[in-house]
Amino acid sequence: MPRSSSAERWLYEPLLLCAALLAGAPAPAQVTGAGPNRLVNVIDVSEHEDQVDLTMVFNCSMRFVNNLPASEGKEVRIQLAPLPDCGLSPLALVSTETPPILGGAGIVRSTRLEGIAPGQVTVTITFVKSEQYVIAQGADPHGLRLRVINHKRQKPQVLVGGQPAEIAQYAINLDSEPKPYPQADIDLAHQRLKTPVYVSEVTVNDEKWYRLRVGPIAERKEADKLLELALHDYPRAWLAIGDDSVTNAAGAPSAQSEALPPVEKIGSDPPLQPEELKRLMAQARLALDKHDYKLAVTVLTKLQRQPEFPDRSSAQELLGLARERSGELAHAKAEYEEYLRRYPNGEAAERVALRLRTLRNAEARARTGREAPGEAHGWQMSGDWSQLIRYDGQRITNGPLPPNSNSTVPLGPLTQSENAVFNDFDLLARNRGNNFDLIGRLSAGYDKSFQSSASALGNPTRVSIASFEVLDRPLGLLARLGRQVSVEDGILGTFDGLFLSWNFKPSWSLNAAAGYPVEQLILAPQTQERFETVALAYAPPGAHWDGNIFATTEQFQGFKDRQAVGFETRFLAQNASLVTVVDYDTFYHSLNTASAIGTVTLPARWNVSFDAERRNSPVLTTRNALIGQPYADLNQLAFNLTLTPQDIYQLARDRTPVTDNYSITVNKPIGQRFQWTAIVTGTETGATPASAGVAALSSTGLLLTYQTQLFANDLWRKGDFNVITLTDGNTEIGRIESAALTSRFPIGGAWRLGPRFSVDRLTDATTGAVETTYIPSVLLDWERGRWLFQLDTGAELGSREAFLQLPTGGFVQTQDTTRYYISISYRVTFQ
């Protein structure tokens, strides 16, 4: 969704027929053009509190091959293999694309698609900063999801001392006392942490307090590491950000120099029995329900003085809430701050930080008539406008035939041209409130083709995403209505409908979706098909893994189209990652997808990645019965061929082959500038039987491809990127041997130049014909601030020798192919 109505392998059939020799006729040219249509429809970026999902929606089926780096970096290169419904031959020249991207400002800097190896494309995503991520492909190869995890979007719970825009440095507050620290304590802290130690002062209720601190620390990442180390010897340690003269950029006291009442010290009372602790917690909750805030404060304060116990963080939160509701706002802020310092990753940290921010805003408005600095209120807009102009031409010339061949094939050149203009507009409107977030998304475009050939563009207007969502933070409820994309929870891409998510516990979410799958990106919904999905997700806070289970059902033109259950799991540790996806159709009793993508980091900086999957190709749905048929409607098919519903279901099974894909990637950095990669991939598509007038297809057998790449950075000058790729492999139409060189380097200012050159040779599996192709191209781009300009031009110079068995004897005919393209694109972003 959107999915092609024809299966991948059947689109190879015309290509194979064209390559075959007919009796006494010369072999037609091998068409390798890509046409003007783009491969990536849209990249949708959805932000959550501690993770970000990038959902890539393709305009045709793409098989994941590998990604580098494996799980962490400022830039990730995702290698994909376009499947036959993309209409590309294994030697196709793919021009550069800048896929439309919706959202992600401050997370994703840029995206780019380009071809650097035969039969493959690479999507490069550049982040604003280094990120950790996992990648998964669901049941439908029209989509791919990259999940950025442990993404901290400067969450309020760690901003106790100020706002990010005003912060220069960090410090670790080890402890606080109402009397000066002796020099021995200062020396001991320095000995333990090997970091400069100092003492700051703050006045609370007219009483001076002394804070033992280490710092200043310039980088947040280093501060987090030091905090983790300090907690072993200083269990009350917390992260301070720009709240004293040492860490504050201006050297002035921050907002957190406000004198707040002291809080009760943990462990100052003897420990109570667990039963008594539970009784007091129940009493406090009941008092809050009855609005008896005085009693609630008394009971919760007693609990606050207890040593650490399982519900102490809840007691701390409730104490702040009771203080706030009783009007003791200064005490409430002090209790909320105590929670954030002691439980920065607690289950209620976001909720507590929101309440604290609300109190600060109210105080700022009362004092100055303005919002607190750094707080974003009202509607914020971000998006981009882009345009791509592409011209694509091809000229095929057949060599002379022998005398008396009686051939009717023209010897003159055959010329084709395809050109189009793509216009894209992406808009994200967000309103962050104290309790509600409102988000509107729009990704749309208009395409204009300048020829009337069969391969010309279809409907010129595209609406990829058009949705509105509401997030209720206190309830943990999200609702999104409209056209949207998803490749998880059993959803197969783009749909018009409703998505609901309820985060009913810190680790648990219940998701549901219903609507109409989108086959064509026109404005109006297509209601001939509908689906419903429900999923349960588990994501423990701070854990290295998460997962979900789902159940989904679809109907198409009155037939059961799909009914599946499955699960997805994601695991990411420091030296390993693993993502698994299982999708099983309970109606057809068929395994739609079982895949595992993993990485392992070994000693000496070796990295091994693997991908193993078995999938129905395409996804097994009842509409697959239409593959190879002259009908576009299941009811027409049933009426004209006199088929029962069971016959239709069997035809769907017959048209759905099983494909096994395997790949293993070995990666090794060599010094500071080089990186070597070796990739072995294997794919095998099973046979399908003949039925209802559609011919049988035999199994492809195991097709192996071997590839090695050498990456180099800063080789000729600082900021350059270079890669050499060698490929040797088998495809359904023949053997491919290729050598390619891609480079990109700065040439002055914001300009970068990217020359590319490859030499490919294809040996046809059917005829033995050999085609050699030379592909030079160059990419020129300029990027500065909100502006991006690209000029991409290239040529494909091919020579093919085909052996013809004529009545007069054997003959070798030559065919020359010249393809050339030029594309000009620009993008303007705003926020």
Written overview of the protein:
- It is a single chain.
- This protein is mainly beta.
- Helices cover about 15% and strands about 50% of the residues.
- It is built from ten helices and 34 strands.
- The strands form three sheets. The protein has a 22-stranded antiparallel β-barrel. Strands 1, 2, 3, 4, 5, 6, 7 and 8 form an eight-stranded mixed β-sheet that branches.
- A hairpin with a 2-residue loop joins strand 6 (about 110-115) and strand 7 (about 120-135).
- Helix 4 runs antiparallel to helix 5, helix 6 (about 310-325) runs antiparallel to helix 7 and helix 7 runs antiparallel to helix 8.
- The longest helix is centred in the middle third of the chain and has 20 residues, at about 350-370.
- The protein is globular, with a radius of gyration of 31 Å.
- About 40% of the residues are buried.
Overall radius of gyration: 31 Å
| Helical residue percent band | 10-25%
* Overall body shape: globular
The first-to-last residue Cα distance is 30 Å
β-strand amount: over 45%
Average pLDDT level:
82
**Strand tally, please?**
34
Give the biggest sheet.
22 strands, antiparallel, barrel
Briefly note the structural class of the backbone. Answer: mainly beta
Uncertain segments of ≥5 residues (pLDDT<50)? 2-36, 152-168, 249-257, 367-376
How large is the count of helical segments? 10
Task: Pick out its properties.
single chain, 831 residues, mainly beta, 22-stranded antiparallel β-barrel, eight-stranded mixed sheet, 34 strands, globular, disordered N terminus
